[in-house]
Amino acid sequence: MNKKVAAAVSHHEREVAELRADRELAVEYLKAAMESLDDPDDRAAALLALRTVAEAYGGLGAVAAEAGISRESLYRTLSAKGNPTLKTLLAVLKAVGMKLSVEPGQHVAA
To answer: Which superkingdom is the protein from (predicted)?
Structure first.
């Protein structure tokens, strides 16, 4: 009764592979996650999404080196409790070939 079991791939590994294979998907994935930065209770989602994109585009060590920060600092910054500076955020985005942009939001009349 020796059945061969196919090697399981974790959700995270699959997500990283899909983002690596489809640049447009990675951009849309990160754009959607970045919307959570507006919510102090849900900021972790954006940071973890950026971490996943960093893993897909070179790995955290390579992205940290390109961004000019230590790998350990990048791990802390892109964690659920991370709080990156604007300088770090821009450097990491640049290292993965993206940039920060602004779009109009809902206008609240005064």
So the answer is: Bacteria
pLDDT tens digit string along 8-31? 789 999 999 999 999 999 999 999
Classify residue 27 by burial, with Cβ atoms within 10 Å: 0-12, 13-18, 19+: middle
Per-domain boundaries in the chain:
11-95
Question: How far, CA to CA in Å, does 7 sit from each of 4, 17, 19, 58?
Answer: 9, 16, 21, 24
Q: Are 80 and 52 in contact (CB under 8 A)?
A: no
The answer to pTM > 0.90 is no
| Distance from the first to the final alpha carbon of the chain | 73
Could you say which DSSP state residue 68 is in?
T
Q: Are 91 and 68 in contact (CB under 8 A)?
A: yes
Distance CA 110, CA 107 (A): 9
Residue type at 17?
A: A
Phi-psi region of 68 (alpha: psi -120 to 50; beta: other; left: phi over 0): left
